[in-house]
Design brief:
single chain, 167 residues, alpha+beta, six-stranded mixed β-sheet, globular
C-alpha cells in the first residue's frame, strides 16, 4: 500500500470516528414556539417519511429546510402517475403544506431545487407554469433544475426540495 493511500485511509477513518462521536439531538414531531433548538417536523397532510424529516427549522431567525417533496398524497399514494403536470402540482401542494407546518408560506422560499426524471424541454415549460401559480413570477426563489435518471420510487417524475427564511 502506498504512503498516499495510507494517509487517505487514515483521514477517512479519523473523519468517520469524529462524526460518530458528535452527539445528535433527538428528532421530535412537535414544534415548540420560541425555542432556540432545532425543530424537526413531519406535518399532518404529508405522507409519513422513512429515513428523513419533512421540515427542519434552524434558528436563529428562522431558516426552514424542506426535504424533497414527491407526488404523494397524505395517504402515501402516488398522484398523477404518468402525468407530469399533475405530479408537479401535487409536489407544490406538498411543499406548501410542509412550509405551513413551519409557519412559512411559498413567499418565504429562498431556494428550490428541482429533480426531474429524464428531463425534456417541454417539462421545463410545465414546471414554470405550475411554479408561477405558487411562487412570485417577479421574485422567484433561487433555484436549480437537474435532470436525473430516476428517483427513489418508480412512478415519481419530479421531486422538489426547498429552503425558506422567515423574519
Amino acid at each position: 500500500m502506498s504512503k498516499e493511500n495510507s494517509v487517505f485511509r487514515f483521514a477517512v477513518l479519523a473523519g468517520t470516528i469524529a462524526l460518530m462521536a458528535h452527539p445528535v439531538a433527538p428528532q421530535t414531531d412537535r414544534a415548540s414556539k420560541g425555542t432556540t433548538k432545532m425543530q424537526f417536523l413531519n406535518p399532518e397532510g404529508l405522507s409519513k417519511p422513512k429515513g428523513f424529516t419533512q421540515v427542519v427549522i434552524a434558528p436563529p431567525g428562522k431558516v426552514i429546510y424542506v426535504s424533497g417533496q414527491v407526488p404523494l398524497n397524505a395517504n402515501g399514494e402516488v398522484v398523477g402517475r404518468g402525468d407530469f403536470r399533475a405530479q408537479a402540482t401535487q409536489v407544490m401542494e406538498n411543499l406548501k403544506t410542509a412550509l405551513a407546518a413551519a409557519g412559512a408560506t411559498m413567499k418565504d422560499v429562498i431556494k428550490a431545487n428541482y429533480y426531474v426524471v429524464n428531463l425534456k424541454p417541454d417539462q421545463v415549460a410545465v414546471i414554470r407554469e405550475v411554479r408561477n401559480k405558487y411562487f412570485s413570477p417577479e421574485h422567484p426563489p433561487a433555484g436549480t433544475l437537474v435532470g436525473v435518471t430516476s428517483l427513489v420510487q418508480e412512478g415519481y417524475m419530479l421531486e422538489i426540495e426547498a429552503e425558506a427564511a422567515v423574519k
